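Hi R.,

Here's the chain you asked about this morning:
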Amino acid sequence: MDPLFSIIIATYDRVDFLRGLLAGIAAHFGKLNISHEVIVANNARDERIAEEIAKLIDEFRNSDRIAFRQVREPLAGKCRAQNVAIRAAKGSIMVFFDDDIEVTPDWLTVAAEFYQRREFDVMQGPILMPPEMEHNQELLRAQQRFRTINFVKYRPGMTDLKTLTGANIAVRREVFARIGYFNENLGPGRSGISEDVEFAQRLVKSGGRIGYEPRAGVYHRVDWSRLTEEFFRLRHEQQGRSRLIYKKQSLASIVPNFLRSIWTFGWYSLLGNERKKYRAKGRYFHYRAMLAVKTRKITGIHD
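And here is the predicted structure, written out as tokens:
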């Protein structure tokens, strides 16, 4: 009998984080009478790391009534790896967790209830700050400035969404037959970001619905290397290149936005409004990356 849920985790080098996630799934989900399987989409570029991931999965294989297995995709790209896993999956609902999250004990029970009583195509769950970090002032200040860790928690009463954050989502299998798989030109290993946003746009355009389930939360590990000026720049450059792929913006729209970002950055710097200054700074990196891509195409210069 096929499982109800196929839990898909794409990974390429965070073996320790992956171990924690798999241990949480085994501990919390293994005792439940809700059928599920776990598929690790092994996207490691280094064969030594790929072997470490495979050995880790062997440690969990068939433990606590859960079928753990892997699919191997050596070519770089989170979306490519996820798509391979979707084709291999047996469940009617595909769950996608990032490898740097930790599940909450009730997640699977809540997700099963959500799909029993709601008519949504996709479920988005919250992505929460670890409880022990909620009052860490250094983290709160850095996150307020950079916003480069995707913590997601919508207001009470929110039910319908128009976008997705892919670290904690569940998708009915038939959605992929209707709108296609994840765009393999986007996301980590390719453009770097925005594969979840683009997928959500296609879904909503097709008439599909995204539901928010506040009880289906996960905790996002805090990676301090993301809370730096360098990572902030890289993330917004990735965002600009990614949006250029699926929005296909022209120079006529990019140039005015680029100039506006310079002006607003200067203005909010003078006013001392740090949050708005960093929003403008992010937009500057975003549109600068778009301009760089467009310029290379026009001049025929490539990296």
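One quick note: The chain has two domains: 5-224, 229-299.

Cheers,
M.
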